[in-house]
TrEMBL record:
One Pfam family linked to the record: Acetyltransf_1
Primary localisation category: cytoplasm
UniProt protein name: N-alpha-acetyltransferase 40
InterPro entries given in the database record: Acyl_CoA_acyltransferase, GNAT_dom, NAA40
Protein keywords: Acyltransferase, Cytoplasm, Nucleus, Transferase
Keyword DNA-binding among UniProt keywords: no
Domain of life according to the entry: Eukaryota
Presence of the UniProt keyword Transferase in the record: yes
Compartments reported by the entry: Cytoplasm; Nucleus
N-acetyltransferase domain span: 1-139
Family: Belongs to the acetyltransferase family. NAA40 subfamily.
Length: 147
């Protein structure tokens, strides 16, 4: 939530709640094996159609809206496992790619997603705008083929 508050668009709890409870929202949830009340994290995703730089082509996308892990669950491979499961789901449903949005200030997330093979998507501000225009955006859009 902190990064959202500092973002250009700010934090809107009602909008985030609506996004997280839309009928299309799907979750992968990690709980403790010994106590199901202990949550380690979740991945929120949706299967969506996204624009491309070609006006006549849309992409079928497994879109990662949120990947959240409690601090104590980080660096054990859980985030990587969640993203691997999303790739398998995307493959199963024959999606073109996986996508996500990441704040430029979140250097750890950038390193994590780059390690998993994600790159700037063609519609990411830095990929499709001039450097001057792209500076106005505090996020990038990353993607990776599902196959």
């Amino acid at each position: 939530m902190c990064r959202y508050r500092k973002s250009n668009d700010g934090w809107n709890a009602l909008e985030k709640k609506a996004e997280m409870s839309t009928p299309e929202a799907r979750y992968l949830i990690a709980r403790s094996a010994s106590d199901p009340n202990i949550l380690y994290g979740f991945l929120l995703f949706q299967m969506v159609t996204e624009e491309t730089m070609d006006d006549d082509v849309m992409a079928e996308v497994a879109y990662c809206y949120e990947l959240q892990l409690v601090e104590s669950a980080r660096n054990y491979g859980l985030g990587e496992y969640f993203m691997k499961l999303l790739a398998e789901i995307g493959n199963h449903w024959k999606m073109d790619k996986m996508m996500l949005t990441v704040f430029k200030s979140n250097k750890g997330a950038f390193r994590f997603y780059k390690k998993l093979g994600f790159e700037l998507d063609e519609i990411s501000p830095s990929a499709c705008l001039s450097a001057l225009q792209a500076r106005k955006f505090d996020y990038e859009i990353l993607s990776k083929k599902c196959s």
